[in-house]
Amino acid sequence: MPHVVSPPSRCAWRQRALWLTIPVLLGMGGFVLLGLSGQPAATPVAPPATVTTVAAARRDMPQWVAGVGTVTPLNEVMVKARVDGQLDRVAFQEGQMVKAGDLLAEIDPRPYQAALVQAEAAAKRDDAQRRNAELDLTRYQKLSTLQVVPRQQLDAQKAQAESLLATVAADHGAVDAARLNVAFTRITAPIAGRVGQRLVDQGAQVHAADTAGIVTITQIEPITVAFPVSQDLLANVVAAQRSRPLRVEATARDGSAVLGSGTLTFVDSQVSASTGQVLLKAQFDNHDHALWPGAFVAARLLLSTQAQAITVPSQAVQRDQTGDFVYVVDPSHVARQRRVIAGLDTDGYTVISHGLAAGERVIVEGQGDIQPGVHVVEGHRAAVGASA
Q1: Using an 8 Å Cβ cutoff, are 52 and 363 in contact?
Q2: What mean pLDDT value characterizes the chain?
Q3: Angle of CA points 79, 83, 88, to nearest 5°
Q4: How many beta carbons lie within 10 A of that of residue 14, not counting itself?
Q5: 49-55 and 376-380 strand pairing
Q6: CA-CA-CA-CA torsion for 258, 264, 266, 267, nearest 10 degrees?
């Protein structure tokens, strides 16, 4: 009986196909890996950063010494009565500007006018007696030469004439005092300035010994500003003042407006032991009355000016542990970090004493979004106040 070979089962065919497929898959995977390992990985290209730049420029840089100042009047006078009496008239309005000699108030003058009349009458009476005594003295001198009048009587007459002469001089003094009292009933402004609040009403009784006055006059034009600076700057301030008048600016405390420009007039003779500061004073014309007595202002003294220094906006200067640096945009529009030496910083600009040339463009906005070597897209901004 012939041997019959039975066909393989379906399970055996599946196992044989799997074993044949595995080497093929492994070969294909190795080929793919070999192909990928031969090509470099593609790196993504970052888009250019948008920044704002400005050109470094030369400009005159002032060196200011700043302090908080107090507006102080040159003169402030409390006007008081110099004689006693009833205040008949008030001739000023509160807050009025007055000139020296302007009438402010009047005291009832009648008692003092009467006293003046009495003093003048007494002076005339005594003067008449003096003239009579001098005539008698002349007669006694002639009779004395004839030895008709004793020497003792002549000396007595001479003494009487001299006594009456002294009395007349005293009477003239009394007349002058009475005339002054009459003049003092007219209260006038001793200085030019602005009158303050009225302290006494019309009809009130005033006295020369009163502690409170009638009104206060404060001088407005000119006016001073007193402000302290550090003792470390004292030598520079004194040396600069010897060579030229020093300019001082007074601005509002928030810096929003310049209130006036004046000249340094006073440097205190000693440094405060408690604060280590010295007091300075500057005088201002103040024709527009922008400076008000007692107000606080920001004062700054122009100590020197650095001519045609290379400057950049202060926001362009960055700082790290190594020092100061700026980002410079080269001709190929690539940001480069540049180490610089920064100097004077005034009015939003910083002097670059080393590391930067005039005309080079520095980044003033967008520095936080870039790294050295990246491409940038520039948005230019003009350097306000800079001169090429």
Answers
A1: yes
A2: 84
A3: 80
A4: 10
A5: parallel
A6: 100
Cα 335 from Cα 369, distance rounded (Å): 11
Distance CA 156, CA 141 (A): 12
Residues 114, 171: one domain?
yes
> Residue 36: what residue type?
L
User: What confidence tens digit (pLDDT) does each residue in 286-343 have?
Assistant: 999 999 999 999 999 998 888 888 999 999 898 888 889 999 998 888 888 899 999 8
Cα(369)–Cα(375) distance, integer angstroms: 12
Whether 114 maps to a domain, the answer reads yes
How many domains are contained in the chain? 2
Residues 28-81 have pLDDT tens digits of 555 444 454 545 555 555 577 788 889 899 988 888 888 999 999 999 999 999
CA dist 69 and 294 (Å) reads 10
Instruction: Give the per-residue pLDDT at 14.
Output: 55
Residue 119 buriedness (CB in 10 A; 0-12 / 13-18 / 19+): buried
Q: Is residue 132 in a domain?
A: yes
Question: Does residue 356 form part of some domain?
Answer: yes
Q: Quick check: is 268 in a domain? A: no
Which CATH number fits the domain that encloses residue 341?
Answer: 2.40.420.20
Domain, as residue range, for 362: 51-61+308-380
